Amino acid sequence: MLVDSEFALKKYLITPIVNPTTEVEQVFNESQITSRNPVERLFGVLKRRFPVLSLGIRLALETAQTLIVACAVLHNIAVNMNEPEPLQDDDQNREWEEEENVNGNDVHRLEHNFREEFLIYFMNLLEENQ
After folding, report:
1. CB-count exposure of residue 122 (10 Å: 0-12, 13-18, 19+)
2. I need a surface site. Which of 13, 30, 38, 83 has the fewest CB within 10 A?
3. H or E segment and range at residue 124
């Protein structure tokens, strides 16, 4: 999942590189941010349209998945019927919290290696386009 730099780097959370120093790192950051912004905006719209999504879902995983899909389907119906988006709440706080690093440096190194694979991909793209 693409997230901003306020989150800890995890194998399942791809963060931008703080203070990029190479062209590859800069291209990676630009791509990461460009891809992340529309998704974050949509999450905000869904959470305003369906407050249950911002309050925390206390359901079994399968039921929560069904609820989220239902919200997405209802949102698409609302869009198709030209329903206006819910007004933005300026007091809305970040719902995500950083998870504690329970395995120390080994986990941290694995997470950096995972992001490094993306950097190699972007480096190859740059080389192909030159």
Report:
1. buried
2. 38
3. helix 105-128
